[in-house]
Input
Amino acid sequence: MTEPQNHNKRVLIVGGGIAGMQAALDIGGSGYEVVLVDRLPSVGGHMHQLSETFPTLDCAQCIMTPRTVDVGRHEKIKLHTYSEIEEIQGEMGDFRVRIRRKPAYVNWDICTACGACTEKCPTSIQVAFDRDLELPKTMRSGRVRHEGTGKAIYTLSPQAVPKKPVIDADHCTYLQSGKCGLCAKVCPVGAIDYEQGPSWSEERVGTIILATGFELYPLEKLGEYGAGRVADVIDALAMERLLSSSGPTSGVMRRPSDGKEPKEVVWIQCAGSRDPELAMPYCSKICCMYSAKQAMLYKHKVHHGQAYIFYIDIRSAGKRYEEFIQRAMEEDDVLYVRGKVSKVFREGEKVVVWGVDTLTGLPLEVAADMVVISPAMVPSEGTQALAGMLGLKVDEFGWWTEQDGNLAPLETVRPGIFVAGAGSGPKDIPEAVAQGSGAAGKVLSLLARWGGHDDQDAGHDELGR
Amino acid sequence: MKVSYFPGCTLNTTGKGFDNAVRASAAAVGLDLVELPDWNCCGATYPLIIDNMLELAAPAHVLVAAQQEGSILTTACSTCYNVLKRTNKFIQEHEEERDRINTFIEAEYAGEVEVKDILHMLRDDVGFEAIADKVQLPLKDLKVASYYGCMVLRPPNEVAYDDPDHPTSLDDLVAALGATPVDFAHKNECCGAYLAVKDESITREMVYAILRSAQNAGAEAVVTNCPLCQFNLDKQQAEMRKSYAGYQPVPIFYFSQLMGLALGLETEDYGWERHYVDARPLVQKLLEGAS
Amino acid sequence: MRVRLSAESVHNELVQRIEEYSGQGLMACYQCGKCAAGCPVAFAMDMLPSQVIRYAQLGLVEPLLESKTIWLCAACQTCYTRCPKGIDLSRIMEALREIVMLEKGSHINYDALTSEEQADWPQQAFIGGFRKYSV
Output
C-alpha cells in the first residue's frame, strides 16, 4: 500500500446518472480529477428518460441539462461513455481500472454532431432508451421526428451529452449486409468508421464511487399482467417516454398499438414490489409518486380522459409529496382504487383490468385503452459482476450492501469505495442527488487528508485498439 | 343590558318552562330579554343543499326583524342559534345569494345583526363571576355533567364560541352556581336529534352511551343547553330502564333551571312536570340542603 | 358480477347532481375513514359514512339511494368538524336524500304519529324531521 501522501487523487465514478453526475461535479468542482464511466452513449441515466419530475412537475431534461452540459465540458471530468468496466485491481489510493469502449462505428474525435447521418439513415428502430416502444408507421411518418433519435444511427436525445451518434450494429443495413452506407456518404467529415472495433483504456484512481443505479423488473415476469405480450400494456418508463416531448410521440398522448389517443388509462402499482412470494419483497418507493405524476400529466394532455390508479397503500413520504398525491385526486380527478390488480388481458380494442375496491368490497373491471405498470425497481444489470471484481457484497436482490444501513449508508466494506444513488436500493431523485453529494463529501474528506492536488501525472494510459 | 330575544318554537311551547327560567334568571343577572315582536320559526334545520335560498328565507326574516330592535339577537335554543348564526354568516359572505334572499323577503339585509347564544352572553357579556356573586343557593356538592350536544359547537368555523372538542362554558356556569362539574368524554356527542321521530331505538342507544359516560364520571345530574337534547336524554331513560339492566335514571336539567334555583328565584313555572325523569326530588334536596 | 367502471360511469348524472347539490368535491376524499370512526350513528348504518363517498367516487349512486344510512345521518357535523379534507359529508347525505325525495316523495308519514306523541315532542324535532324527511 502506498503512503497516503502518494495516494492517487483521481476518482472513478461508475454510472453517469443523476447521482454519479452530482458526485462528479462536486469533486471536479473541488479541483480533483474525475473519471466518469457510463454504458450508454450519453450521460444522464434514467432521469434523461423522464418527462417531468415530482412533486414540482419540472421538465426533467430542462433541469438536468445544465448538469449534463457541465459534466460534458468540465476540465476535471473525463468521460468514458458507451463504455464498461472490465477489470479493477488494487486498493484505496491505487486502483487500476480497465475500461472497454464499445464500437460506435463513428469517430467521435472528428464528428461535428451535424446530424446528417441520422437524418438520412433509412432504418427506423426500436430504441432501448425509448423502452422499445414501437408506434404505428402512420404515426412515425406523420410526426415531427426529433433530430437524431430512433434510427439505426442515433443519439439518445437532442440534448444528449456527449452529443455524438452511435450505430446500432444489429439493425444497421450496412453492418448486416454490406449495403446502404448512406451515413458514410453524407457525413461531411468522414467520421463514419464501419471497421471500428472496441477499444480499451486503463485509468488509475485512488477512490471509487459506485453510482450504478437501477432498472425495472421485466414485464415478461409478470404473467398475470400479460407477461409483456399484451399490446398497450407498458411499463412506467415507457410511459415517461410517451409523455416526454423528446419521446417517440413528441409528448403527444398516443397508445402504441394503433396510435390512438387513450381515453381510459389504468396504472397498476406494486407490480413485483411488496411481493415476497412471487417477486421482490421490498417497496420500490418511487412508484406512488411517479404514477400520480404520470396520471396528472396524462390528464393535462387528455382532459376528458379517465385515469385510474390501483394501489395497495399510497406512500408519499417526502417533502410536498402527500400534497402532490392529493392534488392528483382532487384537482386532476385521478380515481385511486385500493386493491391490487389480479389480471390484465386483451379483449378486442381494449385491455381489461380485473381489480377490486377493498373500501367498498366490490370486484371491479375496467376496459382500458392503455395500462401502465409500475414494476419493481431492481439493480442495474452488471452490478453483481462489478461486485465480484471489487470483492464487494450485494444483498439477495443484488443491491449494494452498505457498510451500515443506518450510520454508514455511503461506505462499503472496502476503504475508498463508496456507493451513491439507487444502486444500493430504490431511491428518488432528491435522495440520489443527496447521496451523490454525500459520497463526494466522503471522497473529498479522504483527499483532504491525503493533501495537495498533485494528481496530474498519475493519469491515463491508452491501451490501443 | 337590554337585548332582543328569540324564544323559538320549542321554548314557546313544550319548552315553556325552560323559557320561563331563561327569562327570569337572565333578568336576575342583569340581562333584560326583550322578546322579538312578530317572530317566526327559524326553520329548525340549516339547509344543507347549496342554492336553497328558499329555506333561508325564514331565518333571514327573523334576522331582519331583529335588525329593527338592536345590534344583538340572542336565543336560548341551541338549534335556533345554529340556524340563525349560520344563516347570518351566509348572508354576510354571499353577496349574490343575499340579493336573492332580500328580493324574496322584501328586505335590505346584509348580516348586520350579531347572533349570540344566550350562554355565550352569560359568559362574555354578564360574566360567570358576576353570576356567582348573585348566587343565593349554591348547588353545593351537586355533581353535574354538562352536555353540549352539537348545535353550539359545530361547525366550529360557523357557530362555535367554545372549543368544539373540549367545551367548558356550561361547566364553568354550573361551577359558578356552586355545583361541581364532572368532565366526561361524551359531552359533545350527538344525541340523535330528530332521528327519534323515525326510530327511537337508535336514539336510545346513542343516549345510553352519553348518560353512561356521564354517570361513570360520577354525575348525579346532567345539564344541557339544547331543548331537543334535554328531551331525548330525558325521555329515553324510561325505556332504558327496561333495555339496560340496572340502569339508574338521572335527571336532565336545562341550564336555566339550575340557574334559577341557584339564584334563589321562584321556580314553580320551570316545567318540572314535563320531565320524564322526575327532577323534583333532587330539587327538593337542594332546597333543603340550602335552608 | 364485476362492476365495470368507465369514464362515463364514474361521472354519471347522479354523481354530478350530488356534487351540485352538496357543493362538495367528492374526489377530495382520500378515504381515511375518520368520519365513520366518529359518527355517532354509524353503528346503526348499513353503509359507513366513508363508504357513501366511496360509492359516489366510483359512480355507484344507486346503492346509496337505497341505503338506510342517508336517513340516519342527523347532520350533527362531527364528521365535517374533524374531516382532514374539509368535506361536509352531511351536505352529501342531504343531497342524496333530496335526490330520493324529488323522485319518490317524502320519507316520513307524520299521520302515523299519535296525538300523544305529537303533544310530547319538541317542536324542533317535528319541524327538523319534517325538513329532513320530506319534500
In short: Chain C has a mean pLDDT of 92. Residues 89-104 of chain C form the longest helix (16 residues). Chain C touches chain A through 20 residues (CB under 8 Å).
